[in-house]
């Protein structure tokens, strides 16, 4: 019985993707991105992991390799937006602020700017933060 269910599932998947219906699935900003961020005036390596919920809201985490060790933080999109330009709130042990990113049309990379929130007022994002897909060392793409 299990083999029949597996075969039926495989057939449905083949029909779905083979018929071209699978190409209609929209690209998404969800993924793991490796890049650089300007932190304390220096370029630092950053890994940004993003998820998208059912409503389209982006959230995630990041890790920056700083002089004093690994800095871990969170990202949350306050207002759900559509399109390739999105704004998120970042929070880590040093504070919080805004991160505005512009994704490529296929969502495989982004270029962004971040700024701090001081005394409840958000500075205009002006420091670089970018990302592209992270690949394993054994991956042919990296």
Describe the model.
Helix content is 12%, strand content 51%. The protein has 142 residues and is mostly beta strands. It has a single domain (31-133), classed as Beta Barrel (Porin). Strands 1-2-3-4-5-6-7-9 form an 8-stranded antiparallel β-barrel. Mean pLDDT is 84; it is low at 6-24.
CATH architecture: Beta Barrel
Shape field? globular
Beta-sheet strand percentage?
Answer: over 45%
SS-based class = mainly beta
> How would you describe the oligomerization state of the chains in this entry?
single chain
Radius of gyration: 19 Å
Helix content: 10-25%
How confident is the prediction overall: mean pLDDT? 84
Determine the number of helices (DSSP H or I, runs of at least 4 residues): 1
- Largest sheet descriptor: 8 strands, antiparallel, barrel
Q: What pattern of helices and strands is seen along the backbone? A: HEEEEEEEEE
**Between the first and last Cα atoms, what is the distance in angstroms?**
42 Å
What low-confidence regions span 5 or more consecutive residues with pLDDT below 50? Answer: 6-24
Give the neighbour order of strands across the main sheet.
1-2-3-4-5-6-7-9
CATH class: Mainly Beta
Tally of strands = 9
Count of all domains: 1
Give me the CATH fold name. Answer: Porin
Signal peptide: 1-22
Keywords: Signal
């Amino acid at each position: 019985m299990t083999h029949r269910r597996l075969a039926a599932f495989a057939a449905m998947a083949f029909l779905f993707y083979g018929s071209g219906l699978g190409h209609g699935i929209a690209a998404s900003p969800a993924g793991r991105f490796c890049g650089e961020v300007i932190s304390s005036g220096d370029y630092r390596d950053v890994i940004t992991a993003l998820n998208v919920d059912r409503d389209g809201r982006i959230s995630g985490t990041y890790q920056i390799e700083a002089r004093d060790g690994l800095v871990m933080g969170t990202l949350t999109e306050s207002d759900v937006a559509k399109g390739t330009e999105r704004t998120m709130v970042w929070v880590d042990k040093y504070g919080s602020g805004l991160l505005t990113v512009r994704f490529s049309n296929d969502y495989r990379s982004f270029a962004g700017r971040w700024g701090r929130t001081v005394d409840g007022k958000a500075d205009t994002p002006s420091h670089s933060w970018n990302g592209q897909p992270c690949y394993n060392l054994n991956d042919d793409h990296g």
